[in-house]
Amino acid sequence: MIGNRPVIAVPMGDPAGIGPEIVARASMSAEVSAKACAVVVGDARILRSALTFPNMPEVQIREIRSPEEGVYEPGVLNVMDLHNIRPEEFTIGTVNAACGRAAYEYIEKAIRLAMDGRADAVSTTPINKESLRAADVPYIGHTEIFGALTGTADPLTIFEVRDTLIFFLTRHVSLRNACDLITKDRLADYVRRSFAVMKQLGLDHPTMAVAGLNPHCGEHGLFGDEEVKEVAPAVELLREEGYPVYGPIGADSVFFQAMEGKYDSVMSLYHDQGHIASKTVDFYRTISITGGMPILRTSVDHGTAFDVAGKGLATSISMEEAILIAARYAPNFRGSLETAEK
């Protein structure tokens, strides 16, 4: 913390993507400056180059060696410069090994700042999986990098939109395989871990609804029996253990109910179920949180946008929201928890 504002480390992202643009734009936000001390870990040369793109704001780049040297006010971009890539080494909007390596090093440094207690959270910008692979980085994405570098075996991915947390029982598997992974034991385990994460974020008495899989939750087995055989028994077991869990509730209404305040969180049974619900209601303010780690990480939930990179078209709404959510949770963040207090 610097004064009453948490320090948020922001790795710049893939230099060939929109990361440099959105961190520059986010530095203009009066709300971000009022609530957080955002420190960009990146390359000042790349950021200065990004400021020459069309429609970019006038930003003062301030190179710092530690968060304490920053000037945290609108229009000042505080940068811990790693000097690890030159603008002439790559083409904007293309896969490049040097960009993949640089992006990884920004993340690595940001994590180290948080692990050492010099930053209160990390808010990440987009990286490109192909560029990581070209650089021989042994991780496919952010979650895997954070898991490895913080010693966390299986971090949980959470979305936040309109003060509702969405957890995912399954993520990057086919829909057919996702159905096979919906079992009583697996669901119960994920719900328990999700409550631990909510405690970690500082929520003392959270509630959760479990989405159904089939239309109308299968109508008692008329068209699909996963709810009868797996989901409902898991919810019953969890309630016996003292968890305030409800469901299964039809996926066509459960997310709306949660965003109206009936539940604090929802367990989405497969990837697109929760993604569609959150991104349809507010694409730019759907923010990803990685839970179960000793440090707090939030992230924009969009990609490197190579198709618009360098054109001055990228919006910083998601970047600003990711920093603000990190700043909101950081004061009450409790580090890793092995079990939830019911």
Number of strands: 12
| Estimated helix fraction | 25-40%
Pattern of helices and strands: EHHEHEEHEHHEEHHEHEHEHEEH
Text of the CATH class of the largest domain: Alpha Beta
Q: Termini distance?
A: 30 Å
Q: Give the mean pLDDT.
A: 93
CATH superfamily name of the largest domain?
A: Isopropylmalate Dehydrogenase
Structural class: alpha/beta
Please characterize this protein's 3D structure.
This protein is of the alpha/beta class and 342 residues long. It has 2 domains: 1-152 and 294-342, Isopropylmalate Dehydrogenase (3-Layer(aba) Sandwich); 156-291, Isopropylmalate Dehydrogenase, CATH 3.40.718. Helices cover 36% and strands 17% of the residues. It contains 12 helices and 12 strands. Strands 3-4-2-1-5-12-11-6-7-10-8-9 form a 12-stranded mixed beta sheet, with helices on both faces. Helix 4 crosses helix 6 (142-150). Mean pLDDT is 93; it is low at 338-342.
Give the tags.
342 residues, alpha/beta, Isopropylmalate Dehydrogenase, 2 domains, 12 strands, globular, disordered C terminus
Summarize the structure.
The chain is of the alpha/beta class and 342 residues long.
What's the layout of helices and strands?
Blueprint: E1 7-11, H1 19-26, H2 30-35, E2 37-42, H3 44-50, E3 60-63, E4 76-81, H4 97-115, E5 121-124, H5 129-134, H6 142-150, E6 156-161, E7 164-168, H7 175-180, H8 184-200, E8 208-211, H9 226-240, E9 245-249, H10 254-259, E10 265-268, H11 271-282, E11 287-291, E12 297-299, H12 317-329
Parallel strand pairs: 1-2, 1-5, 2-4, 3-4, 5-12, 7-10, 8-9, 8-10
Antiparallel strand pairs: 6-7, 6-11, 11-12
